[in-house]
Design goal:
Helix content is 8%, strand content 41%.
Amino acid sequence: MKTKKNNLKRLFLVTFLTISAIISAQKAEKPDNIYDLGATINEMTLTIGGVLVVATNDGLVGIKPPENTPLFIFNNFGQLKPEETEFIPNSPYIVVSQGVNSKFAGIAKTKRAVIDYMTGAIIFNSENDNWNQIYTCNVILPQNKLIVSGIQKEGDKFEKITPKVAVYDLSSRKLDFSFFLSTPGKVGISKDYSITGTPLLLKDFIIVPTAQGLIAKSHTGKDLWDNNIKRINWMVADATETEIYGFETTSNGKNTRIHKIGKNGEELWNDDRKVKGKVSNFEITPQGIAVVSDKDDGGDTSVFATKNESEIAFLDAATGEDVWEKAPKTKGWVQHFYIQDDGILFGIQQGGINKISFEGKPLFKKPLKTGENILTMAETPQGLIYITSEDANIVDLKTGDQVWKKPLKYKNSAAVASTFESSKNRFLIAANQTVFAIDANSGDVTELAATKFDEKEVANTLEIKNDNLFLSSSQNMMLLNSKGDEIYHKYFKSPGKSGFVKVLSGVVAVASTALAMAHAAKAGANRSAFGNSNNLDSYNDYGKENKRAADMFASIGDASFALMSQRFKATAATENAQFILTKLDAGIGLVKVDKESGKVAKEILLKDKKPEYQVDDFGGILYYKANKSTLYAYDLNK
């Protein structure tokens, strides 16, 4: 009898679970695409081109809906570690490496490949071209070239053991030219010709930095010149390509030596110029050379330790000597750095803005005090607008005088959103649950509305929607009329801090790259990603930024870059809707909410307490890891 009761309980339990599963399945929206990858999914990266690149136990897979099959499958090297996959910013390229960081590197075989994730083509594979060792691999933009160095198993017995450099065209996928770094079979003491930095590719020749010095070759591989300037890390040429600047990190890694070289390899300065710290920004101007370097104490807490701050120097281009008798004090990191017609404007992360003439004279009456973390510096018809985590104002770019009667001040806000409403000629700033309106002519400030968001969130988005003001955060959406009256406030409960796992490896935000600047300068990286980051932009909007991206990609003149340009020319999926992960009645899911009405237009139930997902906000696609080897893709535009 007891056995029958237990069996009956099991039957009821199975029936209940089955019914629950059916109800859940009815509520769960059917995916538009299902990708069974046949291997364990380890990581998902959403690229700037809109292709999802998935790292599995077998290699890499590229996915691009509405195609039902993968755009590419790269299993040539097997499973890859995260550090073996490099996404080249603002480009369609992935550089894959294997064996490079091994303790046997230089002895055992090393492999490199370059994948065009927009087309799925493998542009370069070291194994196909008989490279036994790949020492360096650099994608050069906007020239759209690949420069590799290493040992290639081609030619006679001496050539097979002599270091070589090859330049490939990434558009045609063909070899442009190659050359040896030393003469194959040359008798004598062996020298170290290892490449110490990124080669500089110019219109008529290439310069390769090595442990023995700089080596220049023509675009056919013909010898041009060499010199003894050793261990250069990176180089920049002026517009004429007749003057080249080389940067060498000192042996202790704390300082930088700057060398100036002529087009024929001669040193143009009597001596190199040593600057404290590592160079983070460098600009060639008609008046001289502007240099920002960052000093780091390296963890030393003694009273004699180097201060953690930036230094700004201005050098005579002819001699390398200091033009300024006294460098301006920074007392922090240079976060913004702009070259203007009359001098250099800079902003400090710890707070403060100043402007110095090219002769070293202060142009502002006194350094401007600001709050910490300068989020925005941009030109407006009234002057320079700055917005920090604590305050905002417009100042005269000639004198540094305040345009607004007094700065707009607010408590240190976790996020600050701003925009300009041209129809009413006013700036709008959302900070600490308040929307401020600032008249562009008078500078008068009014508190337009209070925006109390649930879960103690603050608005990180502020947009103009048909003369209304749209604000949002992770879990909140609000629409106000132009007077600040609430039209709606929608709150979607978060799944909880441990309730979901959003894959963080996505390249969603566009970062500054070689397309925007000649080197890895960090100053200005929080501003426009497109164009020269050392030029102060006008206060712009989302649409202008997308156009700048589209124009930049289109200028490369390659099919894959053209596809990326088209993506930014299209209307973003988030133009009229917001995607929010939240708790639904049946579990955790993603909702699509209309910005105009606040109504939920779509619900997608993710049958997982801790879903792993990626949302392409621009393309309007949700990628969801359904199980260890399967991905679902949902079209959020429908």
